Amino acid sequence: MRIPAKTAILIQKTIFCDNSSCKTWRNSLLCKKPQRPSMTASMQNPVAVAEKIILGVDPGTQVAGYGIIAVQAGVMRMMQYGVVQLSKYSTYQLKLQKLHDTILRLIDEYKPDEMAIEDPFFGKNVQAMLKLGRAQGVVMAAALSRNIPIVEYAPRRVKQSVTGNGNASKDQVSHMVGHLLKADLNPAFFDATDALAIAVCHHFHENAIPLVSSKKSKKGAWSAFVNENPNRTL
Question: Which residues are annotated as a binding site for Mg(2+)?
Fold first, then answer.
């Protein structure tokens, strides 16, 4: 039987829709495949990586250094660094109060997420150790009063993390910190650049736990520490 031309045209247009959700015979011009879903809002606008602010402190009873860095997506930048001059205060109690108040002011201004501080150094000069320990204590008290986590790092570990050499000089540490932070640092402020190094060290060891040193220092280590840090102790 001869099929009319008009009917033949309709047969050509009428096919089984290959859309699996469509089970009816219909005109192919009317049945359309569903379009792919558009990207979700979260994919179109990815959430920005949170910025972490780290406060590094290099305590002392004559001069104390501080350094603040911000880290976002693994990129570090310097926010602030400086020193607290304590030698001008007549009593040890005033020095501790000034140090505590300065660190607290920095915390309230820059809102650090974590604090990194140099681990206490064990040596033979008991009086110097006690005074330095008290300075570290008031710094830690300031952070604890604002519920800021504290991590301690041994001086050698800081140098090793920043320069690759645990016996690096202060000048080498300062130079490398400036390179890592892409900042032009004042080489006269070694206490401040040391504090920045402590903050950078903490960034490199984000999952570190507070250090507890059970080993005795090597003979002469305390003397070397005092000679390299004349402004750290009275």
Answer: 58, 118, 191
Instruction: Please name the residues in contact with 230: beta carbons below 8 A apart, sequence gap of 6 or more.
Output: none
Angle formed by the axes of helices 155-163 and 170-181, nearest 10°: 50
Q: Quote the CA–CA distance of 22 and 116 in Å, as a whole number.
A: 63
Among residues 97, 26, 91, the alpha carbon closest in space to that of 64 is found at: 97
Residue type, 57: V
Instruction: Provide the residue type at 191 as one letter.
Output: D
- Extract the annotated binding site: 58, 118, 191
Kindly list the catalytic residues. Answer: 58, 118, 191
What are 79's two structure tokens?
């926010």
Q: Summarize the confidence of residues 11-29 as an average pLDDT.
A: 43
Upper half-sphere CA count for residue 33 (Cβ side, 13 Å): 8
Give dist(CA 119, CA 99) in Å, integer.
17
Q: What is the pLDDT of residues 25-39, one digit of tens each?
A: 344 444 444 454 454
Q: Which domains does the chain have, with CATH numbers?
A: 65-205 (3.30.420.10)
Angle between helices 170-181 and 190-204 (to 10 degrees): 60
